Amino acid sequence: MPTNSLNAQFRGIKKSDGKVAALTAYDYPTARLVDEAGIDLILVGDSLGMVVLGYPDTTSVTLADMIRHTGAVARGTKKAPVITDLPIGTYQTPSQALASARDVLAAGADGVKLEGGAEIAPHIRALTQANIPVLAHLGMLPQKIREEGGYKIKGRSASEAQALRRDAATVQQAGAFAVVLEIVIPELARDISQTLDIPTIGIGSGEGCDGQILVLHDLVGLYPWFRPKFAIARTNLATPLSKAVREFISSVKNTEPNTP
Ligand code: KIV
Q1: Which CATH architecture has domain 3-253?
Q2: 203 close to ligand 1 (CB < 6 Angstrom)
Q3: What percent of the chain has pLDDT over 90?
Q4: Closest of 173, 138, 179 to residue 22, by C-alpha
Q5: Contact 148, 115 (CB under 8 A)
Q6: Which pLDDT tens digit goes with each residue over 178-235?
Q7: Would you say the CB of residue 45 lies under 6 angstroms from ligand 1?
Q8: Residue whose CA is closest, atom 8 of ligand 1?
Q9: CB contact at 8 A, 164 and 111
Q10: Which residues contact 186 (CB under 8 A, 6 or more apart)?
Q11: Whose CA is nearest to atom 3 of ligand 1?
Q12: Cα(26) to centroid of ligand 1, in Å?
């Protein structure tokens, strides 16, 4: 099994019963704030397509988008590892995955995230053998949203649960340093977490995971038009932001006209 420093670090966190706290960031100021607050991992998620670029889902995000935002996040981050999503269509073969990963690493990422299980094990192996840390992603796969027709909880049927268990073991074996479990039924997510040596990082998958990840905008209420049910907003930054803008507008409009 290929190893790298993130692999040892994240296995170590799990071995010592620690939890992994992870968040997304897409730009310099939020990355810097999140890093200085002490987060364990920053993901430059392709969710940027929705919460920053205004697309309906992640499928329009390009490698050029990820490279640009990875650079901004890396410039704001001193401590946490920066992991960048490889967007849809940029890791169709192991060699394409390697080329795409090298591009985001050149922009400042420490590793990459790929969506999928056994079918991308060769891609994960190629990356980790090239010493590129990989965060795997199982369960609901946002890049498959159009095929699947919505965000559906995963692992309800016996066959789906069995496939998820197999995929989790396979991505670990291929060298992933951790695995995101997105909206997997909590009992199954707990079960998978107990069988792996690498940490599971859950999103909408219950408290039995070895850590949690959220989209920053959901955590701080910066995308008030939609927030998944499982994401608890700890503040509502949209409100003071709108208030400040309204106050600025009225202060400008109500200034006495200049007299000649
Ligand atoms: O793109 C993203 O933000 C993600 C997280 C939701 C895990 O993949």
Answers
A1: Alpha-Beta Barrel (3.20)
A2: yes
A3: 93
A4: 179
A5: no
A6: 999 999 999 999 999 999 999 999 999 999 999 999 999 999 999 999 999 999 999 9
A7: yes
A8: 45
A9: no
A10: 205, 206, 207, 208
A11: 45
A12: 11
pLDDT of 85-100, one tens digit each?
999 999 999 999 999 9
**Residue pair 16/207 in contact by the 8 Å Cβ criterion:** no
Determine if residue 202 is left, alpha or beta; phi over 0 gives left, psi from -120 to 50 gives alpha, anything else beta. beta
Our answer on whether the CB atom of 132 is closer than 6 Å to any ligand 1 atom is: no
* Mean pLDDT per 10-residue interval, the chain, length 260 residues: 79 96 98 98 98 97 98 98 98 98 98 98 98 98 92 95 98 98 98 98 98 98 95 97 98 85
Any ligand 1 atom below 6 A from CB of 85: yes
Dihedral of alpha carbons 7, 103, 44, 94, sign: negative
Q: Measured in angstroms, how far is the CA atom of residue 162 from the centroid of ligand 1?
A: 23
Measured in angstroms, how far is the CA atom of residue 13 from the centroid of ligand 1?
Answer: 21
Separation between Cα atoms, residue 238 and residue 58, nearest integer Å = 22
The two structure tokens encoding residue 94: 């192991």
Domain extents in the chain: 3-253
- The tokens for 46 are 């392709």
112 lines ligand 1 (CB under 6 A): no
Q: Using the CB atoms, write b or e for 191-220: b if 16+ within 10 Å.
A: bbbeebebbbbbbbbbebbbbbbbbbbbbb
27 — phi, psi (to 5°)?
-145, 170
182 is catalytic: yes
